[in-house]
Specification:
Radius of gyration: 17 Å
Number of helices: 15
Bound molecules: ADP-ribosyl-L-arginine, magnesium ion
Shape: globular
Number of domains: 1
Structural class: mainly alpha
CATH architecture: Orthogonal Bundle
CATH topology: ADP-ribosylglycohydrolase fold
Number of strands: 0
Order of helices and strands: HHHHHHHHHHHHHHH
Protein backbone atom coordinates (compact mmCIF):
# COMPACT_ATOMS: atom_id res chain seq x y z
CA UNK A 1 0.00 0.00 0.00
CA UNK A 2 2.81 2.43 0.83
CA UNK A 3 4.34 1.81 -2.60
CA UNK A 4 0.94 2.58 -4.14
CA UNK A 5 0.73 5.90 -2.28
CA UNK A 6 4.22 6.82 -3.52
CA UNK A 7 3.44 5.51 -7.02
CA UNK A 8 0.36 7.74 -7.18
CA UNK A 9 2.12 11.03 -6.43
CA UNK A 10 5.31 10.21 -8.34
CA UNK A 11 3.20 8.86 -11.22
CA UNK A 12 1.21 12.08 -11.34
CA UNK A 13 4.37 14.21 -11.45
CA UNK A 14 5.96 12.00 -14.13
CA UNK A 15 2.82 12.20 -16.29
CA UNK A 16 2.80 15.99 -15.90
CA UNK A 17 6.50 16.34 -16.76
CA UNK A 18 6.22 14.05 -19.80
CA UNK A 19 2.99 15.62 -21.02
CA UNK A 20 4.27 19.16 -20.60
CA UNK A 21 6.52 18.62 -23.61
CA UNK A 22 3.40 18.53 -25.78
CA UNK A 23 0.72 20.60 -24.00
CA UNK A 24 -1.48 22.32 -26.57
CA UNK A 25 0.11 20.63 -29.61
CA UNK A 26 -1.16 17.87 -31.82
CA UNK A 27 0.91 14.80 -30.96
CA UNK A 28 1.82 12.83 -34.09
CA UNK A 29 5.43 11.91 -34.86
CA UNK A 30 6.76 12.06 -31.35
CA UNK A 31 8.91 10.74 -28.54
CA UNK A 32 10.05 11.80 -25.08
CA UNK A 33 13.51 13.05 -26.12
CA UNK A 34 12.76 16.46 -24.63
CA UNK A 35 12.01 15.00 -21.18
CA UNK A 36 13.76 16.97 -18.45
CA UNK A 37 11.67 15.84 -15.48
CA UNK A 38 10.49 19.43 -14.91
CA UNK A 39 6.83 19.52 -13.89
CA UNK A 40 4.19 22.27 -14.08
CA UNK A 41 1.31 23.79 -12.10
CA UNK A 42 -0.43 20.38 -11.97
CA UNK A 43 2.24 18.95 -9.67
CA UNK A 44 2.86 22.25 -7.91
CA UNK A 45 -0.79 22.33 -6.79
CA UNK A 46 -0.92 18.59 -6.03
CA UNK A 47 2.04 19.20 -3.70
CA UNK A 48 0.06 22.04 -2.09
CA UNK A 49 -2.90 19.74 -1.44
CA UNK A 50 -0.63 17.12 0.14
CA UNK A 51 1.32 19.67 2.21
CA UNK A 52 -1.85 21.14 3.67
CA UNK A 53 -3.53 17.80 4.43
CA UNK A 54 -0.36 16.59 6.17
CA UNK A 55 0.22 19.81 8.07
CA UNK A 56 -3.38 20.06 9.36
CA UNK A 57 -4.05 16.32 9.60
CA UNK A 58 -7.27 16.87 7.64
CA UNK A 59 -8.78 19.31 5.13
CA UNK A 60 -8.64 22.95 6.22
CA UNK A 61 -9.80 25.29 3.45
CA UNK A 62 -8.14 28.42 4.74
CA UNK A 63 -4.81 26.65 5.27
CA UNK A 64 -4.91 24.97 1.86
CA UNK A 65 -5.71 28.27 0.13
CA UNK A 66 -2.78 29.95 1.89
CA UNK A 67 -0.53 27.02 0.91
CA UNK A 68 -1.54 27.43 -2.76
CA UNK A 69 -0.86 31.16 -2.56
CA UNK A 70 2.56 30.71 -0.91
CA UNK A 71 3.63 28.10 -3.47
CA UNK A 72 2.35 30.18 -6.39
CA UNK A 73 4.17 33.31 -5.19
CA UNK A 74 7.42 31.38 -4.85
CA UNK A 75 7.17 29.88 -8.36
CA UNK A 76 4.57 31.70 -10.47
CA UNK A 77 6.27 30.49 -13.69
CA UNK A 78 4.94 26.93 -13.43
CA UNK A 79 2.39 27.45 -16.22
CA UNK A 80 -0.74 28.35 -14.26
CA UNK A 81 -3.89 29.22 -16.22
CA UNK A 82 -5.53 32.57 -15.50
CA UNK A 83 -8.17 31.40 -12.97
CA UNK A 84 -6.15 30.36 -9.90
CA UNK A 85 -3.98 33.52 -9.73
CA UNK A 86 -7.15 35.64 -9.93
CA UNK A 87 -8.61 33.71 -7.00
CA UNK A 88 -5.37 34.12 -5.04
CA UNK A 89 -5.51 37.89 -5.53
CA UNK A 90 -9.13 37.99 -4.31
CA UNK A 91 -8.27 35.98 -1.20
CA UNK A 92 -5.30 38.25 -0.48
CA UNK A 93 -7.68 41.20 -0.70
CA UNK A 94 -9.76 39.64 2.08
CA UNK A 95 -12.37 37.44 0.42
CA UNK A 96 -13.05 34.11 2.18
CA UNK A 97 -11.41 31.03 0.60
CA UNK A 98 -14.88 29.55 0.05
CA UNK A 99 -16.22 32.65 -1.76
CA UNK A 100 -13.45 33.96 -4.01
CA UNK A 101 -13.74 31.32 -6.75
CA UNK A 102 -17.46 32.11 -7.22
CA UNK A 103 -16.46 35.47 -8.73
CA UNK A 104 -14.77 33.91 -11.78
CA UNK A 105 -16.21 33.42 -15.25
CA UNK A 106 -19.08 35.82 -14.82
CA UNK A 107 -20.09 34.29 -11.50
CA UNK A 108 -20.35 30.73 -12.87
CA UNK A 109 -17.03 29.61 -11.42
CA UNK A 110 -14.40 27.59 -13.26
CA UNK A 111 -14.98 24.18 -14.82
CA UNK A 112 -11.30 23.93 -15.77
CA UNK A 113 -9.44 20.76 -14.83
CA UNK A 114 -7.28 22.50 -12.20
CA UNK A 115 -9.16 21.01 -9.24
CA UNK A 116 -8.99 17.48 -10.71
CA UNK A 117 -5.31 17.62 -11.71
CA UNK A 118 -4.23 18.18 -8.07
CA UNK A 119 -6.73 15.99 -6.18
CA UNK A 120 -4.77 12.70 -5.99
CA UNK A 121 -3.77 13.11 -2.29
CA UNK A 122 -7.48 13.26 -1.39
CA UNK A 123 -8.10 9.98 -3.24
CA UNK A 124 -5.28 8.41 -1.22
CA UNK A 125 -6.25 9.75 2.18
CA UNK A 126 -9.92 8.83 1.83
CA UNK A 127 -9.72 5.77 -0.43
CA UNK A 128 -11.91 3.73 1.92
CA UNK A 129 -14.63 6.30 2.64
CA UNK A 130 -16.59 7.30 -0.46
CA UNK A 131 -18.63 10.09 1.12
CA UNK A 132 -15.65 11.67 2.86
CA UNK A 133 -13.68 11.43 -0.38
CA UNK A 134 -16.46 13.19 -2.27
CA UNK A 135 -16.88 15.97 0.30
CA UNK A 136 -13.14 16.69 0.61
CA UNK A 137 -12.66 16.54 -3.18
CA UNK A 138 -15.44 19.13 -3.55
CA UNK A 139 -14.14 21.31 -0.72
CA UNK A 140 -10.58 21.46 -2.07
CA UNK A 141 -12.04 22.30 -5.50
CA UNK A 142 -14.07 25.14 -4.11
CA UNK A 143 -10.92 27.12 -3.35
CA UNK A 144 -10.42 27.78 -7.09
CA UNK A 145 -13.15 25.96 -9.02
CA UNK A 146 -16.72 26.74 -7.98
CA UNK A 147 -18.48 25.30 -11.04
CA UNK A 148 -20.26 21.99 -10.40
CA UNK A 149 -18.49 20.35 -13.37
CA UNK A 150 -15.07 21.37 -12.06
CA UNK A 151 -15.83 19.96 -8.61
CA UNK A 152 -17.47 16.78 -9.90
CA UNK A 153 -14.46 16.16 -12.17
CA UNK A 154 -12.20 16.34 -9.13
CA UNK A 155 -14.42 13.96 -7.16
CA UNK A 156 -14.41 11.44 -10.03
CA UNK A 157 -10.62 11.66 -10.41
CA UNK A 158 -10.17 11.18 -6.64
CA UNK A 159 -12.51 8.18 -6.76
CA UNK A 160 -10.56 6.64 -9.66
CA UNK A 161 -7.36 6.99 -7.59
CA UNK A 162 -9.15 5.36 -4.64
CA UNK A 163 -10.32 2.39 -6.73
CA UNK A 164 -6.81 1.98 -8.15
CA UNK A 165 -5.09 2.11 -4.77
CA UNK A 166 -7.52 -0.47 -3.34
CA UNK A 167 -7.21 -2.85 -6.31
CA UNK A 168 -4.91 -5.85 -6.08
CA UNK A 169 -2.52 -5.36 -9.00
CA UNK A 170 -1.41 -9.01 -8.88
CA UNK A 171 -4.81 -10.05 -10.29
CA UNK A 172 -5.67 -8.05 -13.41
CA UNK A 173 -8.18 -5.23 -12.89
CA UNK A 174 -11.28 -5.54 -15.08
CA UNK A 175 -11.63 -2.21 -16.93
CA UNK A 176 -15.37 -2.73 -17.44
CA UNK A 177 -15.87 -3.20 -13.71
CA UNK A 178 -13.63 -0.17 -12.96
CA UNK A 179 -15.54 2.09 -15.36
CA UNK A 180 -18.88 0.73 -14.12
CA UNK A 181 -18.02 1.72 -10.56
CA UNK A 182 -17.06 5.22 -11.67
CA UNK A 183 -20.31 5.52 -13.61
CA UNK A 184 -22.26 4.54 -10.49
CA UNK A 185 -20.28 7.05 -8.40
CA UNK A 186 -20.92 10.13 -10.50
CA UNK A 187 -23.93 12.34 -9.84
CA UNK A 188 -23.58 14.24 -13.10
CA UNK A 189 -25.25 13.32 -16.38
CA UNK A 190 -22.40 14.97 -18.33
CA UNK A 191 -19.83 12.65 -16.76
CA UNK A 192 -22.11 9.62 -16.83
CA UNK A 193 -22.40 9.97 -20.61
CA UNK A 194 -18.63 10.36 -20.95
CA UNK A 195 -17.98 7.23 -18.87
CA UNK A 196 -20.49 5.33 -21.02
CA UNK A 197 -18.45 6.49 -24.02
CA UNK A 198 -15.29 5.20 -22.30
CA UNK A 199 -16.96 1.78 -22.06
CA UNK A 200 -18.05 1.84 -25.71
CA UNK A 201 -14.61 2.89 -26.93
CA UNK A 202 -12.49 0.47 -24.88
CA UNK A 203 -11.35 -1.41 -28.00
CA UNK A 204 -11.29 1.57 -30.36
CA UNK A 205 -8.04 1.79 -32.37
CA UNK A 206 -8.62 5.27 -33.84
CA UNK A 207 -7.13 7.81 -31.39
CA UNK A 208 -8.59 10.78 -33.22
CA UNK A 209 -12.05 9.29 -32.69
CA UNK A 210 -11.27 8.75 -28.99
CA UNK A 211 -10.06 12.37 -28.56
CA UNK A 212 -13.07 13.69 -30.44
CA UNK A 213 -15.63 11.72 -28.47
CA UNK A 214 -14.11 11.92 -24.98
CA UNK A 215 -12.44 15.33 -25.39
CA UNK A 216 -8.84 16.26 -24.58
CA UNK A 217 -9.20 19.90 -23.53
CA UNK A 218 -8.66 22.00 -20.44
CA UNK A 219 -12.28 21.62 -19.26
CA UNK A 220 -12.60 19.00 -16.50
CA UNK A 221 -15.27 17.09 -18.42
CA UNK A 222 -12.97 16.99 -21.47
CA UNK A 223 -9.92 15.62 -19.68
CA UNK A 224 -10.89 13.60 -16.58
CA UNK A 225 -12.72 11.02 -18.78
CA UNK A 226 -9.71 10.87 -21.15
CA UNK A 227 -7.39 10.08 -18.21
CA UNK A 228 -9.70 7.43 -16.77
CA UNK A 229 -10.04 5.91 -20.23
CA UNK A 230 -6.26 5.93 -20.85
CA UNK A 231 -5.69 3.96 -17.65
CA UNK A 232 -8.62 1.61 -18.34
CA UNK A 233 -7.39 0.49 -21.74
CA UNK A 234 -3.78 0.14 -20.50
CA UNK A 235 -4.18 -1.42 -17.06
CA UNK A 236 -1.13 -3.67 -17.43
CA UNK A 237 1.51 -1.00 -17.84
CA UNK A 238 2.23 2.42 -16.35
CA UNK A 239 4.36 3.28 -19.39
CA UNK A 240 1.60 2.36 -21.86
CA UNK A 241 -1.12 4.18 -19.91
CA UNK A 242 0.77 7.48 -19.68
CA UNK A 243 2.15 7.28 -23.23
CA UNK A 244 -1.35 6.61 -24.54
CA UNK A 245 -2.81 9.50 -22.50
CA UNK A 246 -0.30 11.96 -23.92
CA UNK A 247 -0.80 10.66 -27.45
CA UNK A 248 -4.41 11.85 -27.28
CA UNK A 249 -3.08 15.42 -27.57
CA UNK A 250 -4.69 18.58 -26.20
CA UNK A 251 -4.06 19.18 -22.49
CA UNK A 252 -1.33 16.56 -22.41
CA UNK A 253 0.42 17.48 -19.15
CA UNK A 254 -2.86 17.33 -17.23
CA UNK A 255 -4.24 14.18 -18.87
CA UNK A 256 -0.78 12.67 -18.35
CA UNK A 257 -0.74 13.71 -14.67
CA UNK A 258 -4.21 12.33 -13.93
CA UNK A 259 -3.51 9.07 -15.78
CA UNK A 260 -0.16 8.77 -14.00
CA UNK A 261 -1.83 9.25 -10.61
CA UNK A 262 -4.34 6.44 -11.27
CA UNK A 263 -1.86 4.06 -12.88
CA UNK A 264 0.83 4.76 -10.25
CA UNK A 265 -1.72 4.11 -7.49
CA UNK A 266 -2.57 0.78 -9.12
CA UNK A 267 0.94 -0.51 -9.88
CA UNK A 268 3.08 1.10 -7.17
CA UNK A 269 6.23 3.18 -7.59
CA UNK A 270 8.46 0.25 -8.59
CA UNK A 271 6.58 -0.10 -11.89
CA UNK A 272 7.27 3.46 -13.01
CA UNK A 273 10.15 3.39 -15.52
CA UNK A 274 13.48 4.25 -13.92
CA UNK A 275 14.49 6.62 -16.71
CA UNK A 276 11.41 8.72 -15.96
CA UNK A 277 11.92 8.69 -12.19
CA UNK A 278 15.67 9.37 -12.41
CA UNK A 279 15.23 12.81 -13.88
CA UNK A 280 12.04 13.79 -12.05
CA UNK A 281 12.37 17.15 -10.31
CA UNK A 282 12.15 16.95 -6.49
CA UNK A 283 11.28 13.25 -6.52
CA UNK A 284 12.60 12.84 -2.97
CA UNK A 285 10.24 15.49 -1.68
CA UNK A 286 7.25 14.04 -3.57
CA UNK A 287 8.03 10.59 -2.18
CA UNK A 288 8.31 12.04 1.33
CA UNK A 289 4.88 13.67 1.02
CA UNK A 290 3.36 10.37 -0.14
CA UNK A 291 4.93 8.57 2.81
CA UNK A 292 3.63 11.21 5.22
CA UNK A 293 0.14 10.83 3.76
CA UNK A 294 0.49 7.10 4.28
CA UNK A 295 1.51 7.67 7.91
CA UNK A 296 -1.38 10.08 8.40
CA UNK A 297 -3.80 7.53 6.96
CA UNK A 298 -2.56 4.85 9.33
CA UNK A 299 -2.56 7.15 12.33
CA UNK A 300 -6.11 8.29 11.69
CA UNK A 301 -7.36 4.89 10.59
CA UNK A 302 -10.20 6.72 8.86
N1 LIG B 1 -2.94 26.80 -18.54
C1 LIG B 1 -2.23 25.86 -18.85
N2 LIG B 1 -1.49 25.89 -19.95
C2 LIG B 1 -1.48 26.95 -20.88
C3 LIG B 1 -0.85 28.19 -20.29
C4 LIG B 1 0.57 27.98 -19.94
C5 LIG B 1 1.29 29.24 -19.53
N3 LIG B 1 0.72 30.42 -20.02
C6 LIG B 1 2.70 29.07 -19.97
O1 LIG B 1 2.96 29.10 -21.19
O2 LIG B 1 3.56 28.92 -19.11
N4 LIG B 1 -2.11 24.76 -18.10
C7 LIG B 1 -2.63 24.59 -16.81
O3 LIG B 1 -3.98 25.08 -16.77
C8 LIG B 1 -4.93 24.01 -16.76
C9 LIG B 1 -5.68 24.07 -15.47
O4 LIG B 1 -6.41 25.24 -15.51
P1 LIG B 1 -7.32 25.70 -14.28
O5 LIG B 1 -6.49 25.69 -13.07
O6 LIG B 1 -8.54 24.89 -14.28
O7 LIG B 1 -7.60 27.20 -14.68
P2 LIG B 1 -8.93 28.03 -15.07
O8 LIG B 1 -8.47 29.35 -15.57
O9 LIG B 1 -9.84 28.03 -13.91
O10 LIG B 1 -9.64 27.20 -16.26
C10 LIG B 1 -8.92 26.91 -17.43
C11 LIG B 1 -9.71 27.35 -18.67
O11 LIG B 1 -10.95 26.68 -18.74
C12 LIG B 1 -11.91 27.54 -19.38
N5 LIG B 1 -13.04 27.71 -18.44
C13 LIG B 1 -13.11 27.30 -17.17
N6 LIG B 1 -14.30 27.63 -16.62
C14 LIG B 1 -15.00 28.26 -17.57
C15 LIG B 1 -16.31 28.83 -17.60
N7 LIG B 1 -17.17 28.81 -16.54
N8 LIG B 1 -16.71 29.41 -18.76
C16 LIG B 1 -15.89 29.44 -19.83
N9 LIG B 1 -14.63 28.91 -19.87
C17 LIG B 1 -14.21 28.33 -18.74
C18 LIG B 1 -11.20 28.83 -19.68
O12 LIG B 1 -10.71 28.77 -21.00
C19 LIG B 1 -10.05 28.82 -18.68
O13 LIG B 1 -8.95 29.61 -19.11
C20 LIG B 1 -4.12 22.74 -16.88
O14 LIG B 1 -4.06 22.37 -18.24
C21 LIG B 1 -2.76 23.13 -16.39
O15 LIG B 1 -1.75 22.33 -16.96
MG1 LIG C 1 0.25 22.25 -16.26
MG1 LIG D 1 -2.43 21.17 -18.60
Amino acid sequence: MKSKFVGCLVGSAVGDALGSIFEGFWVSDWGFDGYSGRWTDDTHMMIGVAESLISCGAFDGSHMAQTFIKNYEEEPWRGYASGPPQVFRLIKRGLAWSEASKRLFGGLGSYGNGAAMRVAPVGLLHYDNEEKLRSVAYAQSQITHAHELGMEGAAIQAYAVALAVKADSSSRLDPYDFLGKIKDFTRSEVYRQKIEKCLELLNEANKRKVSRELGNGVEAYNSVPAAIYSFSRNVDSFRDAVTYAISLGGDTDTIGAMTGAISGAYHGVEKIPEEWKNRLEKIDYIEKLAEELWNLKNKKGE
